[in-house]
Amino acid sequence: MIFTYTPAGTKRLLLSEWYALEKWPHHCPTDRNHRHFIVYQGKRAYRCGSALSAESAQVSAMVFTAKPFIVKH
């Protein structure tokens, strides 16, 4: 499935809050300055991005809303 992503700002989370989110099962949004994203689909939030180092206490993540993109033939 193809998604379009609408940026909605940034958010800081504790590591426990980040890992409490379910992993986004589709491809992640991209941004060359960020590696961690929160993706909202409807009212549910998902985490998307690379693993964090053990020294991390917080995660700075960009927030996106995902909408399915339907290709019409």
Helix and strand layout, with pairings?
Layout: E1 3-14, H1 15-20, E2 22-23, E3 36-41, E4 44-49, E5 58-68
Parallel strand pairs: 2-4, 3-5
Antiparallel strand pairs: 1-5, 3-4
Radius of gyration: 13 Å
Total number of β-strand segments?
A: 5
Low-confidence stretches: none
Percent helix:
under 10%
Number of helices: 1
With strands numbered from the N-terminus, the spatial order across the biggest sheet is 1-5-3-4-2
Quote the distance from N terminus to C terminus.
15 Å
The percent range for strand residues is over 45%
Shape: elongated
Classification by helices and strands: mainly beta
Can you write the helix and strand succession as a string?
EHEEEE
| Biggest sheet layout | 5 strands, mixed
How do you describe this structure in short?
With 73 residues, the protein is mainly beta.
Task: Walk me through this protein's architecture.
The chain has a 5-stranded mixed beta sheet. The chain starts with a strand and ends in a 5-residue tail after the last strand. It is mostly beta strands and 73 residues long. It has one helix spanning 15-20, and strands at residues 3-14, 22-23, 36-41, 44-49, 58-68. The chain contains 1 helix and 5 strands, in the order βαββββ. The longest helix has 6 residues, at 15-20. The protein is elongated and about 45 Å long.
